[in-house]
Specification:
mainly alpha, two-stranded parallel ribbon, 2 strands
């Protein structure tokens, strides 16, 4: 699997690693972002990953108003949304 991940930036965190593993296995995924939907992807090294998530029909989601600036509280709030999601599909 390590060679399959070379197509994307190396994961920095557990979220990036999970998205990359899902994509490498041929799955679709969605990312809950800690920034507004109109902002550039943060951190910048995840921009190729964001494109890879969208390519097979995945999604980028945000609970924040477009153009609201990132702040210390946005990522912990994002974690609440992330914790409420689960895998969907068969099973």
């Amino acid at each position: 699997m390590d060679r399959q991940l070379e197509a994307y930036e190396r994961p920095k965190g557990i979220d990036a690693a999970a998205h990359q593993a899902t994509l490498a296995a041929g799955g679709r995924t969605f990312a809950v972002m800690g920034i507004d939907i109109a902002a550039p992807i943060y951190p910048a090294e995840n921009r190729p990953l964001a494109k890879a998530i969208l390519s097979p029909g995945g999604a980028l989601l945000s609970q924040f108003w477009p153009t609201s600036p990132p702040a210390k509280y946005t990522f912990p709030r994002r974690n609440l949304v992330t914790s409420g999601t689960r895998a969907s599909g068969p099973g």
